[in-house]
Task: structure prediction
Amino acid sequence: MALTGQPYFDALLGDAEVAALLGPKADVAALLRFEMALARAQAEAGMITAADAAAIRAALDAFEPDMERLTVSTLKDGVPVPGLVQQLRETIGGEAAKALHLGATSQDVVDTALALKLKAVFECFESRLMIIDRAFEALLQRFGSTPLMGRSRMQAAIAMTAGDRIAVWRDAVVNAGAALAAQKPHSLILSLAGAVGTSEKFGDKIAEIRQSMAIELGLAVPTYGPHADRGRIADVGNALSRITGALGKLGQDVALMAQNGIGTITLSGGGGSSAMPHKQNPVRAEVLVALARFNAVQLSSLHQSLVHEQERSGAAWTLEWLVLPQMLEATGAALTHAIFLLDHVERIGDPA
Result:
C-alpha cells in the first residue's frame, strides 16, 4: 500500500502478495492478454487476417516493455495504453502492426486488465477467508461453552458463552465474504465498447468478438456499456469495506477483551512497549480496526468515481486507480492479520 514509503510500515499495513497481483508485472501481462485475445477473436470474425493475428501473438509472447518509456508516455497520455501499443507496433512491424488494437480504446484494455487482476485477488481472498473460517471453528470447539459476561454499550449485561461471541464474529465475516463473492459475475467482465461506448468499428461482429474474448479470458460479457457506468467498482469497494469492517469488529472486541481488569481473552505474540516492558499490546487487533476505518474512508472516495461525465471520464477513472488498489491491499492485510490473531488465541472466557 506504501502509505508511508517505509518498509516496516508497509509490512504492517500492506500485503506483498496482493501488491504483486496488482503490480506492474501483473498489469502488463493482463494488458497483453487483452490484445492477444482481441487479435485472435478478430481473426476468427474476419476483421483481420489469420497471418496478422499470428504475427501479433508471436510478438506479444516475447514482448518485454521499456518501462522507462512507458512511464514517460503515461505521464503524457494519462494512461499506459497508447505508449504500450506504440511499443507493441514497433515490435510487430509491417502490416500486422496496423491490425493490433483495432477498434479498441484504452479504457477497454485497462478495465479488462483490472478484471483479470481482480480475479486473481478474489481467489487469494477466498483462500484466506476459508482459513479464517476454520480458525473460528477451532475456537468454537475449544472455548464455545466457556462462560463469558455479555456486554451492552460497553457495560456488563447478562451471562453468555464465548461461543455466542465467536459465532457473531464468524457470521459477520462469512456474510461479508459472501457479499464479495456475489460481485464476481458483475465485476469480472470484459470491456470492449470502443471510443464512446458504441463499438462503432466492430459493426455486426461485436457480439461474436466479445463472446470469444470473454471465453478465452474467463470473464463475463456485460449487458450494458461499462465505460461510464461504474457501479460494479463501487460495489466491489463496498464488499471490501464490509470484509475489513467485519474483521475490524473482531479486532475491536479482542482489544477490549484484552484490557487490564477485563481479561476475557489471552493472546500470545503480543507487541511490546519501549517504555513499559511489562505490556503485551494487542497489535494485530488494533491494526484490524485501523484497516477497517481506512477502507471505510476510502469507500466514500470510490463512490465519487461514480460521477463519470458524458461517455468517458479521465478524472473519475483516475480516482479509481488511486483508491481501489489501496482498498484491495488493505483487505488482504486485514485477512492476514486476522489469521495470525485467531491462531494466537490461548483463552477466551471470563477469568476463572
Observations:
- Residues 270 and 324 are 31 Å apart (CA to CA).
